[in-house]
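Reopening this ticket.

The earlier resolution said the output was attached, but the attachment link was broken on my side. Pasting everything inline this time so it's all in one place.
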Amino acid sequence: MPVAVVRAETYYLPPRQMPPDAWGDVAPAELVWRWMEHRVGRRLLPPADTLTDVPPVYARVNQNRWLADCVCNSAAVVSPADPRWACTECGYGWVAMIVPTPDEVAAIEQQLLAIPQPHLRDWWNPADPNPYNPARPPDYPLPSVPEPPGTELAP
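Inline output:
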């Protein structure tokens, strides 16, 4: 049986000493924050506000995992069921996340499951302007990326 494409709901699980459904009330986009909190041993709070004047991030599949990339070059496992994202590394977010429709997600995952080696399962939204997008034309201009909040250099 093929290994399903990994989503936040199946990756960010509670520690073994907790019941498996301990985080059942946590939204998929917020699971990474709960998981990181336990991994680093300190309280991490997701951003309070949604950034509305920045470009959205695009969900993609990389090596059988739904991912979103941050402007700080970090990435996190995400869920196409929760179209928002925030970075636990730099605190950037909440940002709107472009995800395919549920029907498109099902079709994409079905196509990927036909690839026997999970580490070769990749999908990128053709509309994603990210410079690493293999579907974009080779002469596509690099997008301007805003600095994450709090990283401005002092005068």
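Reporter confirms the inline version is readable. The CA atoms of residues 14 and 22 lie 7 Å apart. Residues 102-113 form the longest helix (12 residues).
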